[in-house]
Design brief:
Elements: E1 2-10, E2 25-26, H1 30-40, E3 45-48, E4 54-59, E5 64-69, E6 76-82, H2 90-98, E7 101-104, E8 109-111
Antiparallel strand pairs: 1-2, 1-6, 1-7, 3-4, 4-5, 5-6, 7-8
């Protein structure tokens, strides 16, 4: 079993999961997402399925990461990790670097990018 994060790009302030909607999230171009993740995580390896969907894999020092991005632009894409680890350090790093927020599907919490001047 996996531990899942739904990755989204906000276009308005998101204070809670109640604020998540098509009105508050940007549609993300899969090619742009793959390029940004590749630049951020050069060791990430990608496979493209015949249907055009992207699948990425990365082994980090804390856990494995699996990236799932649909071929069509969408509001959300997925990162899976191992349920057996206590840390998933790359999720906040990705959020901060790409201006994303992550919905932690297991704890029902949002991981937001750090705003400049805050830590």
């Amino acid at each position: 079993m996996s531990y899942d994060f739904f990755m989204m790009k906000p276009k308005a302030e998101i204070r809670s999961t109640q604020d998540l909607s098509e009105d508050t999230l940007l549609v993300q171009d899969p090619e742009v997402v793959v390029q940004a993740l590749t630049a951020l995580l050069p060791e990430l390896t990608w496979k493209r399925a015949p249907d055009g969907n992207w699948s990425g894999a990365l082994q980090s020092d804390d856990t494995w990461y699996e990236f799932r991005i649909d071929a069509r632009p969408d509001h959300v894409w997925l990162v899976r990790t191992s349920r057996r680890t206590n840390t998933r350090r790359l999720i906040p790093l990705i959020c901060d670097a790409l201006g994303l927020l992550a919905f932690d599907g297991q704890t029902n919490l949002l991981i937001q990018p750090v705003k400049p001047g805050k830590s």
